[in-house]
Protein: DNA repair protein RecN
Amino acid sequence: MITSLSIKNYALIEKLTIDFSKGFSIITGETGAGKSIILGALGLVLGKRADLTSLKNKEEKCVIEAQFEISKYNLKEFFEANDLDYEDETIIRREILPSGKSRAFINDSPVNLQELQDLSLFLIDIHSQQQTQELSDQDVQFKIIDAIAQNIATIDSYQKVLKLYKSDKSKLNALLKKQSDAGKEQEYNTFLLNELVAVKLKSGEQEELEADFEKLNNVEIIKESIDKSIVIGNEEQFGVFHNLNEIKTSLQKIAAFSSEYQSLFERITSVSIEFDDISKELQNASEKLLNDPEKLELTNQKLQLIYNLQKKHQVTTVDELLQIQANLENSVLELGNIEEEITLLSKLNEQKTLELDTLSAKINQNRQEAIPVLSSRLISILETLGMPNVRFKMELLPSETYFQNGKDELQFLFSANKGTDFGLLKKVASGGEMSRIMLAVKAILAQYSKLPTLIFDEIDTGVSGEIAIRMGEIMKEMSAKMQIFAITHLPQIAAKGDSHFKVFKSTTNDDTQSELKLLSQEERVIEIAQMLSGAVVSDSALNHAKALLN
Structure:
């Protein structure tokens, strides 16, 4: 419950501090006195957006502070989840600076507006004429039925599964699209891959093949040159090897005379050894050379395959072709993995579908059982509010769609009079009827769920007399379990309150201000009498006011 409200420099309020008690509180005042200003200030505390027009004095900041008793609201988990200090007496403060910037605090910890709005759902429900029209909204109707059906925990479980189901479904659809797109290219990619694999490429192979091709293609001239070199080197009388040995023998004779000659001898010896080795290698090379047209053709074919692939893939090396082959292999493998993932996600989705169907069936069953209870209680309350022939027709329509609260659609129809057909609430119910229906709904919900502080903003529009008295009695009964505020113009309702606040304007030195005052018993009699008869209070109005209060 809200225990106090402090307002500074907001609209027509310069400074105001007021304490509230539990039970049923009444707020009255002439039109334009400032009741909407009080609600506006509360709205800022609850996270509504603000602007500079909120400031009475544009040079000073606006500060609105509300204190709430929340020990029975089970909000410790909320505070922990949002990293806030929990206090049974929680203070929410909102500041609007002259610069236009806004700041919000919960127990002196800065918070953003979303956190403030999330917390406000547990604290205050401001019910206005505009919200009465929300009764025609299917989501609101479901919330009413589900509260009576005790479906909250089941719907919470359902929504957790639904979130996972939608996530997996989204992944599955993305994979299926990827598979479809990849499938269009897969046949061509497989052909390219097989073409590369068939060639059995190796790094450095092209250079080796090109060297082999040159040898095989010029085998005759190579053999002729090598053999001629062997002959020149090894001819018995005039060959290079014979002449080198002659030089070596001549230098050996003078090597002992000088280190210079010794060095020359050693060098020619080295040359002789090297030439002997070259001669042997030439001999081996000559013996290996064979005229092999078949091998030449195979080498040429392999090279042409490589050249064609390089041209096709617009590269110049075998290593680049090998990289393309690896990429194609990964592409084919990835598509195979996609198929495995699709199979896995499909199975998970089937499991989630079974869970959702089971939970939605339970939700539906609970709703089917709750609808007659809701209809009966609504009719019972509304009969006492001047609607003796009211009827409701609530039907659950099965759907294959997974909505946020199950698989049901709802047809919520209403008839106020005998002989009239059922119709949609927003089309056939008057403003006064909608107000009474909403009050009946809130009265029923108060028995099934822990509603926050309720503020009824002129819910009595379109009613009077005995109906107004009964509306006041219903709100009075609700206040036994929760804090209720009623902003009203009807004395019959005002008289039912445990405490009575009056909003009024005062003018000082050409400055108009709105003020809120807790009325004493005597002041309350006069206020209700004025509501009955106007500014001039008659004795009969006073007596009537006292009778209402008693």
Summary: Residues 177-337 form one domain. The chain is about 55% helix and 20% strand. The mean pLDDT is 86. The two ends are 27 Å apart (CA to CA).
